[in-house]
Structures are given as C-alpha cells and as structure tokens.
Amino acid sequence: MTEKKRILTGIRPTGSLHLGHYAGALENWVRLQHDYNCYFLIADYQVSDYADDISLVRQAVWDVALDWLAVGLDPEHSSYVIESLVPEHAELTTLLGWFLPVSMLERNPTLKAEMEAMENPEDGSQERKSVPVAFYTYPVMQVANILMPRAHLVPVGEDQLPHIELTRETARRFNRRFKDVFPEPEGLVGRVPRLVGIDGQAKMSKSKNNAIYLKDDAETVSKKVMSMFTPRMKPTDPGDPEITPAFMYHDAFNPDKAEVADLKERYRNGAVGDAEVKRKLAVALNIFLEPIRDRRSKYEANMPLVREALEAGSKRGRAIAVETMEMVRDALDLNYLRKY
Ligand code: TRP
Asked: Which residues is 18 bridged to in the sheet?
C-alpha cells in the first residue's frame, strides 16, 4: 500500500450524488482505486453556504459515504476521510495562507463565477447573500486537502481544474522556497466532463433540480427520463442527436452501441419518436444503476459498517496528515521547542 502513488479527491457533503458525478469523476475513482493509495475526502469544513442548515450536512455525510460504497469504492483499500476529523487541514490552510497572494485566488475562474452568483443570484426569489470569510479560504483549504497526503493525482470534475492549478503552483513555491515536501499533483477529468441536465441545461446539478441520482429507484429514473427536455417539435422532424439530451445520456451510459447508432440514424431522418429513444434510455440507465442500488441497500441495512468505513478511513487520513505536518513544520522551521 505504501509503495503506491497517492490519490486525493473529494466532495462537499451537501447532498446525494448523481449521474454527472459518476461520469465526470467517480468512474475514474473506481477504475483507479487499486492502482493508487486513495484518500476520498468528505469536505465538511467547506460548507459555509450550508452553515445555517447543518442537519443537511450531517445527513449528506452518510449519503455520500453510501453512494461511494454503492459505486464500489472499497473502503478497505481506500480511505474515506471526514475532513473535520483531520484538523491538520485547518492548520495547513493557515500556514499556506501566509504565502498565497490574494491575487492568485482572484484569478480563479471557478471562484469568480461562484462569488458573482452569490452576490447577484439569477433567480430573483433567492436572497442576495454576503460572501463569508470562509469563501476566501476554501480554495486554500482545497489546496491543503490535496497537499495533505502528498497526493500525485486528483481525479475530479472539470470545474475543479483551476483549484488543481493553484495546488501545483503552491507546491512549486513551497518546495522551491523551503524543502521538497510536495509532489506536483496532476488533475484528471472523467469521460464526460460536463453531463447535461435532464432539462437540457448545461450541467446536471442538485441546485438546478435537473439531476438523476444514483439512488433514484427505477420508476423515478423512468419518469425523469420521459420528462427530459427535447429540442424537437414532432417525431417526423429530422433531429440532431448532438444537441438532444437523451442521446448524450445514451452515449454516456448505454453500452449497446448498435442500438444507439440505429436510434441516432432514425432520429436524424425523423423516423423515430422521442418516446422510443427515452424508453430505451430508461432501460439502459436502470440496468446501469441496478447493481449500484443493490450495493447501496445492502449497506443501508448495515449502517455500522458505513460508520466503520468513515472511522477507519479518517484515522488513516489523520496518520498521514500528522506525518506531513511534521515535514511542513520542519521545512518552515517552526519547531520552536527544539532549541533548548
Ligand atoms: N471543492 C470540491 C467540490 O465542490 C470538493 C473538494 C474539497 C475537493 N477538497 C477537495 C475536490 C480536494 C478535490 C480535491 O466538489
């Protein structure tokens, strides 16, 4: 286990995971879990937008862990880490903050967009929120998360790449100025970097209410699929599969390539109804989700096992964190008491 290179990646506990998470990131985690020593982080320090609703966060910690178990991330080989059980994350965030110029954060496009959205919510019903201090520190904390187990690889969704760039820059600066402590981690984006929502919007997300969840039952999945946005007026119109959500999902999740090719061909010629395209998609998605649901319900019936995964994983996460912080304090020459 110690010979292997390390992965750190994570997710904020704000809800259940959906197909977008799967195709954008989780699939890579599952594929790589035995080639790397993996730390999967539940980033509960980074939920300032849910600070008024911690009961939701508490629930989501379990939901995320169950989703991970459900997709087949083996908690014996990998470590499921609850961020706040490794308070070294907060310490490293503070120390890195000494050296990171605010301008580096301001350049981050993901941050810019998030801050903009907070101050000017698109949806008029939403309250305009002031930006909390934690919002400025969260990218630094994400850098600390990645550096903490001295990770080599960070498989994530596309929107996280700017944070990884920031991490690489931080590692280079630290190593050059102090001691060579951190590998410069690589980002890795999944097969479908940005899965469209069932409403045809650019991205599947919980907040847009356009997601199919890994835990949705077969009937819910079918209903959502049948209600999917379609850009075409009638079945005899020639359609473009490239801009039709149902086909983007077929491409992402239907292993029967011949069926998909046939449907696309007929769709282009106005020779297939959307209902048939969607029915076949619902079948494919349910076949894909069935083993995930099975594993989920097995663990749901045995929650102490889930707890054990979180407890053991957090302990392993803590152990490597303590090791890294020793190296960091040594590099920064912070071991005051060694003097006498
Ligand atoms: N910011 C990520 C998200 O919103 C979650 C996250 C926190 C993360 N720390 C990380 C992802 C470190 C990768 C590496 O999904």
From this structure: 213
